[in-house]
Fold each of these.
Amino acid sequence: MKLTLYYAPTTCALVPLISLHEIGVEFELKTINMRLAEQNSPEYLRLNPKHKVPLLLIDGKPLTENVAMALWMTRAFPKAGILPADSESEIRAISTMAWCASGIHPYLSRINNPAKTCDAAGSADAIVRIATHELMHAFGIADELLAGRDYLFDKWCAADSHLFWCMRRAGQFKLDLSPLKHCSAHFKRMNERASVKKAFEVEASVMAALAKAA
């Protein structure tokens, strides 16, 4: 089996990158330079018309969306714990990942680039303010889910990585996350996982290569 992950630094492609390190499987990493809009290149669009990352090639067949990748990895590598083993928790973990993708990530995108939401003059500040409010509300829900727990479920799963990426991205925008005591503790715990450290080593190497090529 040949696995190829198309990846860009700071994006949610971090989620499957962590999972692949959790599994310990060999894979090829291909970098997409978002600043050069390589996600819109004809070559990449032939693989992924959605023009985004992550993209996982499985023996040459493309698979998109973090939730789908987590489910595929769970079936292909059942002992890795990418999703919880029992069916009820697995479904809840999938629900949590879908929520990260649809209920948290969009607000991060609006904060990062408000002009993609509305290009009307003077609208940026209002977009960021509203998105930040909704984002913190969503994080508040996650904080309650993590109360008294090390991870979202009995042990680590891909849902933890997805929430971790959301928290990390929010931190990169200098948002005040200090009220989120449980999420912050979870974030620190995730940083100590070997798979996360390896993923960050990859990210640092990719960013250095992109900077050198610029």
Note: The chain has a mean pLDDT of 97.
Amino acid sequence: MSTKHFIKVINKRLTLEQVWIPFRRGSLEGWLSYDEGWTLCDGVILLPPHPHFAGSMDNNVIKSLAIFLSEAGFLTLRFNYPGVGASSIDLPKGISSLEYWNTVEEKQLFEEAIQPTLVVLTHLNQSLESKLKSIHLLGYSFGAMVALRVAERVSSISSVTAISLPWISRYQYDFLKNVFCPKLFINGKRDFTFVPTVYNEAWQWVTEPKKMKSLDSDHFFRKQEEELGKEVLSFLLNL
């Protein structure tokens, strides 16, 4: 795929491979996770939450699902947005990456997260196209919104899993009428970003096939990662 920087074996078969994906004048840091014996499988790209809210590829939801799904036979790729972890970013002098991402959130500049995601998707396609049957997106919180917006543009995406998508009044959801792949939404029943009135109005925009699953959790799914993984795996295996 890309230049190998570090590889470690989790168990007898599961391997983690650190990768660097060229982006603008730098690179994005990522981790591939896969079964050493895989020859033909589905790929899953995992999009982390906002950098202000534990938004790295080492977030508990993203990291645990990457391992869980790769142990089930999927090839997974999680990555850091520009300016997060070791992913590079080119900013004006005096502007920190956290200030940059705060502006992204305040002004809803989703393009700043969509573009690196598209680069990751293209890189995975070009590197492993002959071995991947399909590519799915899985996003958590802010990453869920980004994943859905990427799927609006890229018709070849096989499915989107949106975990803890914020259903709040400051966002617009009418773009979801253009996302035609199968979609699984998972929210916690105690999620502070889930506003029932917003959800009830926005759900009408979501095209079929679609599924909403509510778990007894808050926004963060701490200590419930395995339950979350089983829901996602069931969805992917029954597409």
Note: The helical segments are 60-71, 97-106, 111-128, 142-153, 196-202, 225-237.
